[in-house]
Specification:
The protein has eleven helices and 13 strands. The chain has about 325 residues and is α/β, with parallel strands linked by helices. The protein folds into two domains: about 240 residues, Aldolase class I (TIM Barrel, Alpha-Beta Barrel); about 60 residues, Alpha-Beta Plaits, CATH 3.30.70. The strands form three sheets. Strands 7-1-2-8-9-10-11-12-13 form a nine-stranded mixed β-sheet. It has a two-stranded antiparallel sheet with strand order 3-6. Strands 4-5 form a two-stranded antiparallel ribbon. The longest helix has 17 residues.
Length: about 325
């Protein structure tokens, strides 16, 4: 299939990001994810189709504006007693995004837009000078980036043809064929190991971790640069035992061939996006993981991992000693 005809569903594009790969980067967030992690901060990236997100406080009110109502062909706009848009009937919504495109006040946010490779490249080329000055490039994330392997492979191929550094962030709960499609065009992979326990992984993320770990082994065997991350949550994996188990996997099964192992303390983010989608936030009752708790935990975990010979850090914007 020619790259001009391949489209990818993207729910966000961020420029000047420094958290997912080296240097200043442009990052595309692909829509759709097979996981359902309780702490996910991007719920708008879970579904594989466009969705309207509702922000009632921005609504002008139907006394002054009825554009969304007139644009909706399925009568799915929900109105409050104060004559404002407060939600969408998700059972009848056609996901056409007509309401979002008609709204003049951004009270309805279109979560998901289809991109061609050329449309994405037009955005990427704007910041070429910043990539060159900082060693940056392009990152494809999600959702799950590799649920759309044809588009991602075509975009990365074009990036490599134009000399841009490429990075893919993926949970890797995908078929091996999806990895193979993008592997030739990737300079850096970023993935998570949330826990080594498959039952706990399924309970908190909706799927087991066997496929993820198999793909991680495969990527390391390919010789590609790999960064592994662990989101650290109290009551889930914030224990010496859990972190040591991940460290043992890195050392014993991966031969310690990872660029960096990053520990990321959990922070509650994205709750307003859950509300915009009329979904409950799964960790609403989580008691929190405050700095005075996670700082000593992170220090202890780092000491443990460094003693194992692992290049471990806290945070996700530390210098990465990348190979060729």
């Amino acid at each position: 299939m020619h790259s001009d005809t391949i489209r990818g569903l993207v729910f966000n594009v961020q420029g000047f990001t420094v958290h997912d790969g080296p240097g200043i980067r442009t990052e595309f967030f692909m829509k759709g994810c097979p996981l359902s992690c309780e702490w996910c901060s991007n719920p708008e990236g879970m579904r594989t189709y466009p969705e309207p997100g509702i922000y009632p406080d921005k609504c002008l009110g139907l006394d002054d504006c009825t554009r969304c109502v007139r644009a909706c062909r399925t009568n799915s706009i929900l109105i409050s007693g104060s004559n404002r848009v407060v939600g969408i009937n998700r059972d009848t919504c056609a996901h056409c995004m007509g309401c979002a495109h008609a709204c003049p006040s951004s009270a309805i946010q279109p979560w998901g837009e289809y991109y061609t490779v050329e449309k994405a490249m037009e955005i990427i080329r704007r910041d070429k000078v910043f990539y060159e000055r900082t060693g940056g490039g392009v990152t494809i994330s999600g959702g799950e980036s590799l649920l759309q392997p044809e588009f991602v492979a075509a975009l990365l191929r074009q990036c490599k043809e134009e000399g841009f550094h490429t990075c893919v962030e993926s949970a890797l709960h995908v078929p091996r064929s999806a990895v193979d499609q993008v592997l030739p065009y990737i300079d850096l992979f970023i993935t998570d190991i949330k826990t080594m326990d498959p039952a706990v992984h399924k309970a908190r993320c909706g799927v087991t971790n066997e496929k993820i770990l198999d793909n991680i082994r495969y990527i390391v065997r390919s010789g590609k640069n790999l960064v592994i991350r662990t989101p650290v949550l109290k009551g889930f994996n914030a224990t010496d035992e859990s972190i040591r188990a991940i460290g043992s996997f890195i050392v014993n099964e991966l031969g310690n061939r990872v660029v960096q192992y990053q520990l990321l303390p959990y922070r509650q983010m994205g709750t307003e996006k859950y509300k915009s989608l009329n979904r409950p936030y799964p960790m609403e009752d989580f008691e929190g993981y405050e700095r005075e708790e996670w700082e000593p935990d992170m220090a202890r975990f780092l000491d443990l991992l460094i003693d194992m010979g692992i290049n471990a850090v806290t945070g996700n914007n530390k210098h990465m000693p990348l190979g060729k």
